[in-house]
């Protein structure tokens, strides 16, 4: 056997070995490691996204807390104020129950009592107003179910329908909320109230 034949024999054997290589042997070849810089960038982007989400959540929480604190300050006295309105109503009823003849008679003791009750009523309403409680003055206004409660209708052809003509019990607001709606009598039988631009007609 010549050198050339030996040479060709070795090359053929090497080619056969390469062809017979198993898939496991091919897979065992080293895989390129991921770039550490790319990994760091991906992690940085992930952390930045989490930070922005957390910052947005904290901002929303801060705003919600501020609103809750403001509402608590504004409306925490609502229950107490409502109870005090009942006392004020009773003072007004007591004054209205005094006959006109007795007032005109001018008895010293009675006049002092009337004056004292009136001063108490004024002081109570003034204190409530300092805490954001305001009296509604609906007479002559269009009936608004958000602020008024209709108790009865008054036939009157001279004023537009649903105009407040009589206030049976005063209504009050606290901040921008209704503390107690005004109990009113509304007109009936007059012309339809003009619909203001942007308002929808009453059903």
Provide the descriptors you would attach to this structure in a database record.
alpha+beta; Hemagglutinin Ectodomain, Chain B; 2 domains; three-stranded mixed β-sheet
Output the helix-strand order: HHHHHHEEEEEE
- Output the strand order for the largest sheet: 1-4-5
What would the CATH topology of the largest domain be? Hemagglutinin Ectodomain, Chain B
Mean pLDDT: 81
Q: What's the CATH superfamily of the largest domain, by name?
A: GrpE nucleotide exchange factor, coiled-coil domain
Domain count: the total is: 2
CATH class of the largest domain: Alpha Beta
Residues in helix, %: 40-55%
CATH architectural label of the largest domain: Alpha-Beta Complex
Largest sheet: 3 strands, antiparallel
Q: Which percent band covers the strand fraction?
A: 15-25%
Question: Would you give an account of this structure?
Answer:
Residues 20-36 have a biased composition (Low complexity). Belongs to the GrpE family. It comes from Ensifer oleiphilus. The protein has helices at residues 3-19, 23-27, 36-75, 78-97, 100-105, 108-130; strands spanning 133-135, 148-155, 164-169, 172-174, 177-180, 182-188. The chain has 203 residues and is an alpha+beta fold. The protein folds into 2 domains: 37-131, Hemagglutinin Ectodomain, Chain B (Alpha-Beta Complex); 133-192, Nucleotide Exchange Factor Grpe, Chain A, domain 2 (Roll). Helix 4 runs antiparallel to helix 6. The longest helix is centred in the first third of the chain and has 40 residues, at 36-75.
């Amino acid at each position: 056997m010549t050198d050339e034949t030996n040479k060709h024999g070795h090359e053929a054997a090497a080619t056969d070995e390469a062809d017979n290589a198993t898939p496991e042997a091919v897979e065992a070849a080293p895989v390129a490691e991921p770039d550490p810089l790319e990994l760091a960038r991906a992690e940085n982007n992930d952390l930045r996204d989490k930070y922005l989400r957390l910052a947005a959540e904290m901002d929303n929480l801060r705003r919600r807390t501020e609103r809750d604190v403001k509402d608590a300050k504004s409306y925490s006295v609502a229950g107490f104020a409502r109870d005090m309105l009942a006392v004020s109503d009773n003072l007004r009823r007591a004054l209205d129950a005094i006959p006109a003849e007795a007032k005109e008679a001018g008895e010293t003791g009675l006049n002092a009592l009337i004056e004292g009750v009136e001063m108490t009523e004024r002081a109570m309403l003034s204190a409530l107003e300092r805490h954001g409680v305001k009296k509604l003055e609906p007479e002559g206004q269009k009936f608004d179910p958000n602020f008024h409660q209709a108790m009865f209708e008054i036939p009157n052809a001279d004023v537009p329908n649903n105009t407040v003509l009589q206030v049976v019990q005063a209504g009050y607001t606290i901040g921008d909320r209704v503390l107690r709606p005004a109990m009113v009598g509304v007109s009936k039988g007059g012309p339809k109230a003009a619909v203001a631009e942007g308002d929808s007609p009453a059903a």
